[in-house]
């Protein structure tokens, strides 16, 4: 037995833990410098500046371009150790990609607690208000291979690794709060079904193919998840603009051992926003790295994305009263039944220095927890607790925990030894119960204690009857959607099932959906040409609430910020001064302003007073990369824009994709010339004053604006940094800038959609 009472050692351990705690706490002196970043810099960073090139064994090289040969035209010699060293390593550069979630992007940052939660949990990040904990967060798609496109219709992974002074805590969630299956034993099957067809490995990164729909239509427990994945949730505008969910019920355990149940939520401060389907498809082709780029560029530009961590905390007794089982991962807890309490925020403020070493080698695992966090008997979670480390031993190797990105920032002391690529040199005995090292390392007395839940039951490979309702929450989700969102869900089912040739599978899905909503099932049947569904047989069970507002992206948004949105100003030589007025307001509100023109040459304004350097050309950019468009006036500018088809296509496509558009003065002619049928501002006629700025269907127009004109619009005049409440700055303002900023904040002009669908481009 280890001698737990040995004095000196325990105080040494306590001191070490205390020092680690202090250093984590005081680690955020300046941006990005968390304790983890300091550790990485210390242990792993290589700076090649002014360095001499060597082999991997350190021998300096005198040539890089020619291998050793027997004469300049002779055969290469195997004796060339520099060649062998380089080539043999190159031949082994790739490691297996993740079996799921292979495509991902990550960033460093920190978590900051809003309050002291120690009455609820002893988990280190919540120890006191303001406490900061370093973290690394990886977002991913599920089905695609490592090189697949970003904006495919798919669930997104949302993994957060917190480096606490009590060890690493991994929260390995998704951007959807429920899952396809209830028991992890089915996971390989659902993944085989969603991955490409086995005979030809087609299609890449999408569920729109027969094997997926064959499986899910035979697996009714997937119905709720199907509603989510056919919704706009699976087309996020940006990784910065999606939610995260821990999905399972976990435990919070306080220092006294009292446990409560919890569901974890991440809410983006940037708002939750999605692409529309046509936009997602075009983005896949034009910039398959759109999400990766967006995250990287915004962090590089200092526009750090933030999420708030929310907890739904409840007791076993409360859970017993709800009409669903909280151990069933195909169910969520409506927020009306158990409100979300926001307890802290995550800020991502630093890009990785090397993708492979950090993002690719990071290993997340829901079973990596710290004291204060515990598991429940959710059978999906239980299987995950085995699967992640198992696959990581295979993907990364026996000692993957020692890789710099996976290393905790607290001391790691154990008796694990050996294994491939061991990097630790540990002196002393390699077993517990030793006397030669006075029993060290030994038990701290503050270590992890599993919640002593009492369990009893017959060994049985069966499913709990409480998991049996597969449709009531699917219906709750569908009923909570706006009409716009319902139509998107319908269209997504029709699109996906149109890629499934077998009418039997199509019919099964229609009949499955009939238990959710008969008009939906009927509409899909009509569009697919299958038999209309019969009268539904399933009687939904009331879920404690008829609709739940936060399930709808459209209903749950504050529309109060344009921070991080990319606004394109399309211009040619001779633009008017409205550009300057708008740029200031956009920048003050935290938006990115992109100048787009025909060539990269600086573009002079009408007065010849100043020039603007384009960030992009029309030819080498795409409407899909921008959130909104501005067309200034100026006769020469507008005439030149009208003769440039690439510019006009961007505007028409922006209109089709429901993005905010603003045109002023002569710029309005472009709106009418490309046939966008929206009400526009009118110039002053004989005896009639100009109309004030007009906003209709997300298109803002104004005449006589900019210095030198009769200013109908007024600039918002937001002070720099006034990014927290756009509404407060724009509400009630009649000016064109205020109207445009409000339209951008709405992200999409949903009322334009019926009109936009008719635009041919
Ligand atoms: C609620 C359900 C689930 C969620 C939210 C989820 C989430 C995730 C996420 C976010 C990742 C990517 C981790 C990263 O960023 O590196 C991942 C990877 C993975 N998941 Fe899951 N998953 C779920 C269910 C399962 C189940 C049931 C299994 C198997 C029993 C499983 C096995 C795996 C494996 C093997 C990986 C690859 C890990 C690696 O190679 O590093 N997942 N999962």
From TrEMBL:
Binding positions for heme per the UniProt entry: 388
Sites of the 3'-histidyl-3-tyrosine (His-Tyr) crosslink: 365-388
Signal peptide: none
Keyword Iron found: yes
CDD domains assigned to the protein according to its UniProt record, in alphabetical order: GATase1_catalase (cd03132)
Enzyme Commission code: 1.11.1.6
Protein name per its UniProtKB record: Catalase
Species in which this protein is naturally found: Geranomyces variabilis
């Amino acid at each position: 037995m280890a001698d737990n009472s040995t004095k000196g050692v325990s105080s040494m351990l306590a001191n070490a833990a205390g020092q680690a705690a202090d250093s984590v706490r005081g680690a955020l002196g300046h941006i990005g410098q968390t304790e983890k970043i300091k550790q990485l810099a210390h242990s792993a960073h290589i700076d090649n500046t002014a360095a001499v090139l060597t082999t991997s064994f350190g021998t300096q090289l005198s040539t890089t371009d020619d291998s050793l040969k027997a004469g300049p035209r002779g055969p290469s010699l195997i004796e060339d150790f520099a060649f062998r060293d380089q080539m043999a390593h190159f031949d082994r550069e790739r490691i297996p990609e993740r079996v799921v979630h292979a495509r991902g992007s990550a960033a460093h940052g920190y978590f900051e607690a809003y309050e002291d939660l120690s009455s609820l949990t002893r988990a280190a990040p919540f120890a006191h208000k303001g406490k900061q904990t370093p973290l690394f967060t990886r977002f991913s798609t599920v089905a695609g291979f490592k090189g697949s496109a970003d904006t495919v219709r798919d669930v997104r992974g949302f993994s957060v690794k917190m480096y606490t002074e009590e060890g690493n805590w991994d929260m390995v969630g998704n951007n959807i709060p429920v899952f396809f299956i209830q028991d992890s034993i089915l996971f390989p099957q659902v993944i085989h079904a969603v991955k490409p067809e086995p005979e030809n490995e087609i299609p890449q990164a999408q569920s729109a193919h027969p094997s997926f729909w064959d499986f899910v239509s035979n697996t009714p427990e997937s119905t709720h998840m199907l509603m989510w994945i056919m919704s706009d949730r699976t087309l996020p505008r940006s990784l910065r603009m999606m939610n995260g969910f821990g999905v399972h019920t976990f435990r919070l355990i306080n220092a006294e051992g009292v446990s409560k149940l919890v569901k974890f939520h991440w809410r983006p401060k940037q708002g939750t926003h999605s692409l529309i389907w046509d936009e997602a498809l075009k983005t896949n082709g034009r910039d398959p790295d759109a999400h990766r780029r967006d995250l990287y560029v915004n962090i590089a530009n200092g526009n750090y994305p933030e999420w708030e961590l929310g907890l739904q905390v409840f007791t076993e007794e409360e859970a017993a009263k709800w009409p669903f089982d909280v151990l069933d991962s195909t169910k969520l807890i409506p927020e009306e039944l158990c409100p979300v309490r926001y307890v802290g925020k995550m800020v991502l403020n630093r890009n990785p220095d090397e993708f492979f070493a950090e993002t690719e080698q990071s290993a997340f695992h829901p079973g990596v927890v710290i004291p204060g966090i515990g598991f429940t008997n959710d059978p999906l979670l239980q299987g995950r607790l085995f699967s992640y480390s198992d696959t990581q031993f295979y993907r990364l190797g026996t000692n993957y925990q020692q890789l710099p990105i996976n290393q905790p920032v607290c001391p790691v002391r154990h008796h694990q030894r050996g294994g491939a690529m061991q990097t630790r040199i540990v002196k002393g005995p390699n077993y517990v119960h030793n006397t030669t090292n006075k029993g060290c390392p030994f038990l701290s007395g503050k270590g992890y204690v599993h919640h002593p839940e009492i369990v009893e039951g017959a060994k049985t490979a069966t499913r709990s009857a409480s998991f049996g309702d597969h449709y009531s929450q699917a219906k709750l989700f569908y009923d909570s959607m706006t009409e716009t969102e319902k139509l998107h869900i319908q269209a997504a089912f029709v699109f996906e099932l149109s890629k499934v040739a077998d009418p039997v599978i199509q019919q099964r899905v229609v009949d499955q959906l009939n238990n959710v909503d008969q008009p939906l099932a009927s509409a899909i049947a009509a569009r697919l040409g299958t038999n209309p569904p019969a009268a539904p047989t399933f009687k939904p069970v009331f879920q404690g609430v008829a609709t739940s507002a936060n399930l709808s992206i459209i209903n749950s948004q504050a529309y109060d910020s344009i921070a991080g949105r990319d606004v394109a100003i399309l211009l040619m030589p001779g633009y008017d001064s409205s550009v300057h007025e708008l740029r200031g307001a956009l920048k003050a509100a935290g938006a990115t302003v992109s100048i787009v023109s025909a060539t990269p040459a600086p573009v002079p304004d009408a007065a010849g007073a100043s020039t603007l350097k384009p960030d992009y050309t029309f030819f080498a950019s795409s409407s899909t990369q921008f959130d909104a468009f501005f067309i200034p006036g100026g006769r020469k500018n507008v005439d030149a824009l009208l003769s440039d088809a690439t510019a006009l296509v961007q505007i028409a496509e922006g209109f089709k994709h429901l993005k905010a558009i603003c045109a002023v003065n002569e710029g309005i002619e472009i709106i009418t010339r490309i046939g966008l049928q929206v009400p526009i501002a009118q110039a002053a006629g004989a005896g009639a004053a100009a109309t004030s700025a007009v906003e209709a269907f997300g298109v803002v127009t104004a005449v006589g604006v900019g210095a030198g004109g009769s200013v109908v619009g007024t600039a918002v005049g937001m002070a720099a940094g006034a990014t927290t409440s756009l509404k407060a700055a724009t509400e009630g303002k009649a000016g064109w800038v205020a109207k445009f900023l409000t339209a951008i904040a709405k992200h999409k002009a949903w009322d334009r959609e019926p009109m936009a669908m008719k635009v041919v481009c």
